[in-house]
TrEMBL record, chain A:
It is found in: Cell envelope. It comes from Tumebacillus flagellatus. Gene3D superfamilies: Periplasmic binding protein-like II. Pfam families: SBP_bac_8. Coiled coil: none annotated. Belongs to the bacterial solute-binding protein 1 family. This is ABC transporter substrate-binding protein. Residues 1-21 form the signal peptide. InterPro entries: Bact_solute-bd_prot1, SBP. One of its GO terms (cellular component) is cell envelope. Keywords: Signal, Transport.
UniProtKB/TrEMBL annotation, chain B:
The keyword Transport applies. InterPro entries: MetI-like, MetI-like_sf. PROSITE patterns: ABC_TM1. Belongs to the binding-protein-dependent transport system permease family. It is found in: Cell membrane. One of its GO terms (biological process) is transmembrane transport. Keywords: Cell membrane, Membrane, Transmembrane, Transmembrane helix, Transport. Pfam families: BPD_transp_1. The chain crosses the membrane at residues 29-50, 94-118, 125-149, 161-179, 200-222, 256-278. This is Glycerol-3-phosphate ABC transporter permease. Residues 90-279 form the ABC transmembrane type-1 domain. It is a multi-pass membrane protein. GO terms for cellular component: plasma membrane.
From TrEMBL, chain C:
InterPro entries: ABC_transporter_permease, MetI-like, MetI-like_sf. It is a multi-pass membrane protein. Residues 75-287 form the ABC transmembrane type-1 domain. The chain crosses the membrane at residues 14-34, 75-100, 112-133, 159-188, 209-231, 271-291. PANTHER family: ABC TRANSPORTER PERMEASE PROTEIN (PTHR30193), INNER MEMBRANE ABC TRANSPORTER PERMEASE PROTEIN YCJO (PTHR30193:SF37). Pfam families: BPD_transp_1. It is found in: Cell membrane. It comes from Tumebacillus flagellatus. GO terms for cellular component: plasma membrane. Keywords: Cell membrane, Membrane, Transmembrane, Transmembrane helix, Transport. One of its GO terms (biological process) is transmembrane transport. Gene3D superfamilies: MetI-like. This is Glycerol-3-phosphate ABC transporter permease.
Length: 452, 294, 298
């Protein structure tokens, strides 16, 4: 009714103009409707660069082998961009049928009741998930239900320039294991020019909230209360504890000493700095390993190592990355088609190809039996680090990661906080207290809307 | 309206300047030098984009950075076109901008006519109401407009991209000022002749106000072409993205392949650069013709 | 008698005016007045991610805004950004217009180069900016090194981030503003300049007493347009700095976008938009009452 009124008013006011634009672009929407027996479905994702090409190849292979289903993959920018775009498109006919959502979007996806838990399809056809990585399934399982199908899983690792290690008199096969060792090595690796300008930093990290979250888990501490929001709805952010302060302090001291570089928030900029020889070590997702190794080709040799930890920390990582959600508002035929595609993505063979193309590790152990993967990992041992790290992590509430509805906002808040500290605007404790308070406030508002 | 002075080509040197030839030569040389330096600085970012687009990926990512490629390498253009449908993005931008320009010219020339020639009760009040919309920053209406377009099912459509921008108080104001300069006698005579408002509008007012329409058109086009936030919000399909969104998506997607990204930038700049080179005179003339006399 | 005729005629003209005004009025109603009302309404509510008003909170979001140091910071950042872009931009455009106004041989070439920024859009300009201000492979930093300038953290230092964003903004506007001022310059009657010259007035004197007064309407126009543009700047900030580092480029418009389409608190974003509206209203009035008085209309 309201819609009709609006249209009426517009048609009236636009006259000729609306005739001009009347050629609405229904191509994509109308094609969606299964006209010739082919079910078309739109997939939204956030995979750029090499990972994007890898995903496109999977989609292509799927479309070629399924003549009744056609998947259209649409890149929507960063995870944040994609997720926000989804929220704004929700309920319109431009929303996707299948969507890759980053780990931290899980709580919102559940609360908005927009998706069908994949558990439904798993139960319906007794799909076997016994060889799936337990740590990965843990992340996406709540109330005993697997909500979405993991696809691209990663964790952060340390990358280092072996040639720079040799040049600084360090053993290129002995990367630092603790924060103290990182400090020592970084000091030796830092190179200054005569003018006092830093030509190469020892160590760098992008100001990315994910690293902070990882180091909370690494020290076995919670990010939010109620068991990281897994026992019950989280109502309070608790990351302003000693573990949080210790991590940011470590970072701050490194920057202050001039041995840690700061290349901003974008991980790509820190990768570029590493490739250009401006930093000798950096921390980033294992998903970057293919790009980093390729980028250093002919310049230097890249080593990878497990995340350096603070003394006495048990270690361990959260599974980062994305999973696939099937949308509820879609017709059943599309949901089924989406499930077919998900199974294709989870296939050991696909996972093996995906792993070698990017650095994301396979979500199931059967993939390690694939010959191509074995050959590849033998050639590029750098790809092995994250897998070991995954298997060495003991499942716990801390390492399962927090599920909170305002996670994107929380992450951005933590990033600003880290900037404030690194730039010397605030002390670590004050700054983290403020950030935790902000996130707690946001949780309050969120729970007011969604808690039942 | 005769204030428009196509003075660009004015080349006659004044006698006062001719009086002291040597000083003049020196100043002219200095002038050229300043011109050269300044224009190179200003055009530098665009020239550097062009230069980077011809580098190899490694060159575009190296430190210290390269100013020019070691040899011309055109593959990045091919790759950029493969990575994103830049042609489609351009087409979308052209369509949306053209619709917005046409819409604004239409709606504001009509409403300006009413305000300039017709006397009706509440005219001033209504005119102030129009002016008030100029002071509403676009961001204030952003959220509800977004919800409206979504409700209409117009996300990712041309009409959704263009509709909120089809009327403009600024344009109405600009054209009204111009119409007011049209001698009122013309209007009186036309009305006495029994020639209706529409005929007077179409046969006299519109032809006379072409320069002002040109100014408004260029201004509206630049605004529409540059739109970023609105298309960012309402386009969800690759095929419906405008150039602005497309190019930042390409940057997002290719992050480290600067040669490819810059190839995309150059391709996207091409139409407007050509337009500038071909139509520089008309552009400048058109803009000054509208003569922003307020 | 006469009054009756006039009243009748005015009545008739109301009918004639209808179709002329209808398109604009309807569009304004739909895309300006209704949304303005809706924004005011939303500012009193908590909303869900779909933009539906969920619970009434009265003035709470305004109170929270004015108590929030982040919001105050955004206000100051906005003002700083406007100052850094509008006046230098205007001055630079004026100098450029004076520089290319002279009828020299080959001027068309230089003119094309100098107004070339008119061809770039916010996305292309910012993308080029990302490369030129890149933290590790910046040609700009490298070039400045030759002049003894130490490394500049263009986008990762709060001070320089603001400068970088402003530089891109000024550069983008240069082309259009120069064209407008060039147009204004060329509309100045040549006879006036000639007679000033014959009176023995030097270049600067002519500039001050003849050119600038006659150019003032155009200058005023450019001022108004660029103030509005500066307040609405979004793309360059979103692409170059995303409001960072440490909120140093978190201008009001970016803050509205962030709250609305990232944090999905349309209510709080609406309250901020209303504040922005109030500021712009004040500023526009100020411009028209104070500055325009100095403008010399022919």
């Amino acid at each position: 009714m309201k819609k009709a009124l609006l249209s009426g008013m517009l048609a009236l006011s636009l006259g000729t103009a609306s005739v001009l634009v009347g050629c609405s672009n229904s191509e994509e929407t109308s094609a969606d409707a299964a006209s010739n027996g082919v079910v078309e479905l739109t997939l939204w994702h956030a995979m750029g660069g090499g990972a994007g090409k890898g995903l496109d190849a999977i989609v292509q292979a799927f479309n070629d082998s399924h003549d009744k289903i056609k998947v259209n993959a649409v890149f929507q920018g960063s995870y944040d961009d994609e997720f926000n775009k989804y929220k704004t498109a929700q309920g319109s006919d431009t929303a996707p049928a299948l969507m890759q959502v980053y780990d931290i979007g899980t709580r919102y996806m559940i609360d908005s009741e927009a998706a069908v838990p994949v558990q439904k399809f798993i139960d319906a056809e007794k799909y076997d998930t016994s060889d799936f990585e337990k740590n990965i399934l843990n992340y996406y399982t709540l109330d005993g239900k697997l909500y979405s199908m993991p696809f691209n899983s990663s964790n952060p690792i340390l990358y280092y320039n072996k040639d720079a290690f040799k040049e600084a008199g360090l053993d290129p096969n002995q990367p630092p294991k603790t924060w103290a060792e990182v400090n020592e090595d970084a000091k030796k690796l830092t190179k200054k020019t005569g003018g006092g300008q830093t030509e190469r930093y020892g160590m760098s990290m992008a100001i990315y909230g994910w690293f902070f979250e990882q180091y909370m888990a690494n020290q076995l501490q919670l990010y939010a209360n109620n068991g990281n929001g897994r026992q019950g709805r989280a109502t309070q952010a608790v990351f302003n504890n000693d573990a949080g302060v210790a991590f940011v302090d470590w970072w701050k001291q490194g920057v202050d000493s001039g041995t840690f570089g700061n290349f901003g928030r974008k991980t790509a900029d820190t990768q570029a700095a590493f490739a250009a020889g401006k930093t000798a070590m950096f921390i980033d997702s294992t998903a970057a390993v293919r790009g980093v190794v390729d980028g250093a080709q002919g310049k230097f040799e890249v080593g990878t190592a497990e995340l350096p930890k603070t003394d006495g920390a048990p270690g361990g990582v959260i599974i980062g990355g994305g999973s696939m959600w099937i949308m509820k508002d879609q017709p059943e035929a599309k949901q089924k088609a989406a499930w077919e595609f998900i199974k294709f993505m989870a296939d050991p063979k696909t996972q093996a190809v995906w792993h070698t193309a990017t650095g994301y590790f396979p979500i199931r152990t059967k993939a390690y039996d694939v010959q191509e993967l074995k050959d590849f990992d033998a050639k590029y041992p750098q790809f092995q680090t994250a897998v070991n790290q995954l298997h060495n992590t003991k499942p716990s509430e801390a390492t399962s990661g927090a599920v909170i509805g305002v996670f994107p906002e929380a992450r951005a808040t933590v990033e600003t906080t880290i900037e404030d500290v690194l730039l010397g605007k605030k002390t670590t404790k004050d700054s983290l207290d403020g950030a935790a308070q902000k996130v707690t406030d946001a949780l309050g508002k969120y729970n007011q809307l969604y808690a039942k | 309206m005769s204030t428009l002075q196509p003075a660009l080509e004015k080349t006659a040197l004044s006698p006062a300047v001719r009086r002291r030839p040597r000083t003049k030569q020196v100043t002219t040389a200095a002038h050229y030098l300043v011109l050269l330096i300044v224009s190179l600085i200003i055009a530098f970012p665009i020239l550097f984009a062009l230069s980077t687009s011809l580098m190899t990926p490694a060159e575009s990512l190296s430190s210290p950075p390269h100013l020019v490629p070691s040899h011309l390498n055109f593959t990045s253009y091919h790759n950029a076109l493969q990575a994103a449908p830049l042609g489609k993005f351009l087409l979308n931008s052209v369509i949306v901008s053209a619709v917005i320009v046409a819409g604004q010219l239409l709606t504001s020339s009509l409403s300006a006519y009413a305000f300039a020639f017709l006397r009706f009760p509440g005219r001033n009040l209504l005119f102030y109401l129009f002016l008030a919309t100029m002071m509403i920053p676009w961001e204030v209406t952003l959220i509800p407009n977004y919800l409206t377009i979504k409700q209409l099912g117009w996300l990712s459509t041309y009409q959704g991209l263009a509709a909120p921008f089809l009327a403009t108080a600024f344009g109405t104001f600009l054209l009204r000022q111009f119409y007011l300069q049209i001698p009122r006698d013309l209007y009186e005579a036309a009305v006495l002749d029994g020639c209706g408002h529409w005929r007077f509008f179409l046969t006299v007012v519109v032809p006379l106000s072409r320069p002002a329409l040109g100014t408004l058109g260029v201004y509206a086009f630049l605004q529409a072409w540059n739109m970023y936030l609105w298309p960012l919000l309402i386009t969800n399909k690759t095929g419906m993205r405008t150039v602005q969104i497309g190019i930042s998506m390409l940057q997002n997607e290719e992050q480290l392949a600067w040669n490819l990204i810059m190839a995309g930038v150059v391709l996207v700049l091409l139409p407007t650069v050509l337009l500038l080179i071909i139509g520089q005179k008309q552009l400048v003339k058109g803009l000054l013709a509208g003569s922003v006399k307020g | 008698m006469n009054a009756v005729v006039r009243a009748r005629r005015r009545g008739r003209e109301l009918w004639s005016a209808g179709p002329f005004l209808a398109p604009s009025l309807l569009l304004f109603a739909l895309f300006f007045f209704y949304p303005l009302g809706k924004t005011v309404y939303l500012s009193f509510f908590l909303t869900n991610a779909k933009g539906e008003a969920k619970s009434f909170v009265g003035w709470q979001q305004y109170a929270e805004l004015f108590a929030s140091p982040d919001f105050q910071h955004s206000l100051w950042t906005t003002l700083l950004f406007v100052l850094l872009t509008v006046l230098p931009g205007l001055l630079l455009a004026l100098l450029l217009a004076l520089l290319v106004e002279k009828p020299l041989r080959g001027m068309a070439f230089f003119r094309t180069l100098i107004i070339s920024p008119v061809t770039v859009s916010v996305a292309t300009a910012s993308t080029i900016g990302l490369l030129l201000f890149n933290p590790s492979i910046s040609l700009l930093t490298y070039g400045l090194k030759f002049f003894g300038v130490p490394d500049i953290a263009w986008l990762t230092d709060p001070f320089w981030a603001m400068i970088s964003v402003s530089l891109v903004t000024v550069w983008m506007g240069l082309g259009f503003h120069t064209i407008l001022l060039l147009g204004g310059l060329q509309a100045i009657p040549q006879e006036l300049l000639e007679s000033a010259k014959i009176d023995g007035a030097g270049y600067l004197k002519r500039l001050r007493h003849v050119v600038l007064p006659l150019l003032s309407p155009t200058l005023f126009f450019v001022l108004v347009v660029s103030v509005i543009g500066a307040f609405q700047s979004f793309g360059q900030i979103n692409i170059l700095t995303a409001g960072g580092p440490s909120r140093s480029t978190h201008v009001l418009v970016y803050s509205i976008y962030r709250d609305a389409f990232f944090n999905f608190q349309f209510g709080s974003a609406s309250a901020q938009a209303i504040v922005l509206f109030a500021i712009l209203l004040l500023l526009t009035l100020l411009q028209f009452t104070v500055v325009e008085r100095k403008v010399h209309y022919q």
